[in-house]
Design brief:
There is one protein chain. The protein has about 180 residues and is of the alpha+beta class. The protein is built from 6 helices and 8 strands. Strands 1-2 form a two-stranded antiparallel ribbon. Strands 3-4 form a two-stranded antiparallel ribbon. A hairpin with a 2-residue loop joins strand 7 and strand 8. Helix 2 packs across helix 3. The two termini are about 25 Å apart.
Length: about 180
């Protein structure tokens, strides 16, 4: 594994994955397990103590403890003491963990559309400081291109494979 270190943050390892060099595969290697993603969801929701995370995910305590340790090892979360006697910790997202917010929103939107009859959770939004928009409403997230400002749709995307020895169909013969 190699790592990506940002100033003030823990190193996030870059796992070696079989098959096509792929950021999706590398990300899933780090955070792509059910209990890991549900623990991250709970920490996003502000539930930072182990007992609440266990209760709200339904995860077996031993399995959740292992996932939290793994997420801490790869720099997605960090433990912070809130009691010395007895020693107790809360879990907080690092910058790498907070950067999972769009992934979590995308999974929520997909699940609302395809996995449940009625959405059990809705995010609410209102304009921040300096915004003229103050009325709160359900969040309807979208993706836009930072370069041109247009909304991203699958029709406007192409794939530029940059991994040496690979193209869109797979490994290039003779490489």
């Amino acid at each position: 594994m190699t790592s990506n270190t940002k100033q003030g943050e823990h190193a996030v390892p870059h796992p070696e994955v079989p098959g096509r060099p792929c950021s999706v595969a590398a990300a899933l290697q780090l955070v792509g397990e059910r209990w890991a993603l549900l623990a991250i969801r709970e920490i996003f929701y502000g539930n930072q103590r182990f007992d609440r995370i266990v209760r709200n995910t339904g995860a077996p305590r031993d399995r959740l403890a292992a996932r939290l340790r793994a997420l801490e090892e790869v720099g997605v979360i960090e433990r912070r003491a809130y009691s010395d006697r007895p020693p107790r910790f809360e879990y907080h997202l690092t910058e790498a963990g907070r950067d999972l917010a769009p992934v979590m929103r995308a999974l929520l939107a997909w699940g609302d559309r395809w996995a449940v009859d009625a959405p059990p959770v809705a995010f609410r939004h209102r304009g921040g400081p300096g915004s003229e928009h103050r009325a709160e409403h359900d969040l309807v997230p979208t993706s836009t291109c930072r370069t041109c400002g247009e909304e991203i749709g699958s029709g406007g995307l192409t794939i530029d494979v940059r991994a040496p020895g690979w193209d869109r169909a797979g490994p290039v013969e003779g490489s």
